[in-house]
Design goal:
The protein has six helices and five strands; from the N terminus they run αββαααααβββ. By secondary structure, the chain is an alpha+beta fold. The protein has a single domain (6-132), classed as Uridine Diphospho-n-acetylenolpyruvylglucosamine Reductase, domain 3 (2-Layer Sandwich). It has a five-stranded antiparallel beta sheet with strand order 1-2-5-3-4. A hairpin with a 2-residue loop joins strand 1 (34-37) and strand 2 (40-44). The termini are far apart.
Amino acid sequence: MKPASLEDAVSLMGDDVGFPGGASLEDVQCLHWISISGNQLVVGSLVPWGRLRDSALVKDVSPRLWDASLSFDENWAVGESLIKCPPDGPTEIPIALGARIELISSASHREIDLSSPPQIAPGELLVSVRFPLP
């Protein structure tokens, strides 16, 4: 399955947590964006850490996040790494930067902080990771 929109991806979630199993999300563009929204740097959940390293925007607006990107495998998606990283993994820097994750399901849309292990409900798709700008 290859959903083309965020709505299509949410419809495939079923009881999956974070990402739909068996679906390719490469065509869901908002999951691959890096942008600024208000006072936040918004990173699509499927943006690889290597792309953050290569981003002049990230380096300019959030040097500490850019530094943190060096601790992660360049091919690992930002969102996946933050919800699946082992407790001794490098997630302490994004947490210290105040990272929040954006989740959407057919019934809700919410943001949660990462100060404790995220409680993601079945059917919730991880859309983005949001970092407050310094």
